[in-house]
Amino acid sequence: MHRSSDAPRRVSSAHDGGRLALAAVLLVPCAALAQSPAVPVPIPKNIILPNYDNVLVGPVEAVEAGAYLARTSDASANFYNPAGLAAATRSAITASASGFVWSWLRSRALGQTTSSSRIETTPGYFALVIGEPILKGDRLRLGFSITNAVSSSPSGIDEVFEVPPGSGQRLTYSSKVGFSVVVPTVSVGYKLTRTVRLGVGAGLSHTTYSDQETFSGEMPISGRTAQFVSVFRASGDIYHLALSAGVQWDATPRLTLGAVVRAPGLRISSSSLVTYESATQGGGLATSTYFRDDSGAFDYKPPLELSAGIACRLGPVEAEIDLRYHSNVGQYTFYGSARSLQVTTQNPDGTTSRSTQAFTDLTYSSRAVTNVAVGARYHAGKVLALRAGFFASFSPIGDAALAPFQRADLYGVTAGAAFAGEHWSGSLGLAYEFGSSTAVQSSAGAGLGTALDFRSATLLYAIGYKF
Length: 467
Known about the structure:
Elements: H1 18-32, H2 77-80, E1 92-96, E2 99-109, E3 112-122, E4 125-130, E5 140-152, E6 157-162, E7 170-191, E8 196-221, E9 224-252, E10 255-262, E11 266-282, E12 285-293, E13 297-298, E14 305-314, E15 317-326, E16 330-336, E17 340-346, E18 352-358, E19 362-366, E20 369-379, E21 384-393, E22 409-420, E23 424-437, E24 451-466
Antiparallel strand pairs: 1-4, 1-24, 2-3, 2-24, 4-5, 5-7, 6-7, 7-8, 8-9, 9-10, 9-11, 10-14, 11-12, 12-17, 13-16, 14-15, 15-20, 16-19, 17-18, 20-21, 21-22, 22-23, 23-24
């Protein structure tokens, strides 16, 4: 399942080309009214949250907050730990159609508070493991899956502010953004000994980013009212070769250890399209700005991941704790362009002047984080088990002022039940996630410090079939 956020402002976290929009908003008054004092236009951030490890996948794994590196033994092992495929006794399919998530978001900026909520669908997933009766023996297992490693798709927003409150001077802002990492993966699991299982996986990681923004309003410039409107559209795609390897070891009948390493990813190709248009009138000047580039350099760098888990079984109770370390990627160019902004100004004397402005590369900074997940189940009978879990997904954003996304640490709890019959299995549960960010002034200019409170409740359900 994914986590989605409803977004009242441009506050982003991943997913999410952020300083693209940041620069666009900044350019509206400053480039268009270059001969006037800087206009105090707020610079919102996107609301995409690019945190790792808060996507919950699997019929039983999801209901235990994803704490399943050591115990996974079905088709979902393609996502959690490919070594777990070797523990599957027979061929099986696991899938989930679109579920439902309710999200609530509150944004605090410019002395005003805005909140919104919505119910939306979440992306499904598909996974399979090939064993008996297709593959003979119990040592080798093959797997395939299509899962969302990161998914944040805020709903569209449309807001009007008075700046300052009660002044009658308005700012209108609308935004629709999305950020997603989808990874189709082929995996192999091998039982080395009775207690040791190994696995490797290779996938094609597809990262997509989209951003549509409209910003308009009235602001005072040199004692006069100026009107402006800007439209910004950006999209980007990038593909990486994603490699992983894992191990599981049954140290004792009651204790199992698991570990996974995921390579940063080998970049294969990328594409992007960015368009920006604005018009400003005030102080005796009328100015328009235009930018479009379908060949800019778009980049998103996945980190190295090192994960480990330990599971314990005591009678009807089974529990696991996992730690997932994501390395520091550092600062790099998120989007760059060799093209310039075209600026046209209608002067008070009726003449027209044209000029260009260089596009400033937009950067992203990623820091190292270690996330944790804890899950447990209680066998209530032969086919029914009660499950629950907790996870923490810390923000990987390094420099919050430069980042296109908003920095917010996320926490979540899950609870539900699962059944397992001879052929059919399934689960039903709920996940509740929450997090907050503090206001951060952008380093790109006189910015808008926007604080964010996020809550979501997700219906978790899945079904599986064992041949």
